[in-house]
Here is the input.
Amino acid sequence: TTMTNSIIHEVRAIREQHAASFGFDLDRIFADLQARQSKHAAEGWTVIPAPASPPPEANLALQRTRFARR
Here is the structure.
């Protein structure tokens, strides 16, 4: 749908901008994401670990979020 496509385009643009801010250096991007995760945890956010073995097909209605506020 149009709304889904616009959201996907927006997320990809943000991801591209974030990667560009680190010169597309995967080590620096990863370090930044880890620092943000630590910051969120310190602010009281619950960090939900990725599943050990994801389901074979994505179920969009039930996708988990990485951070959940309690």
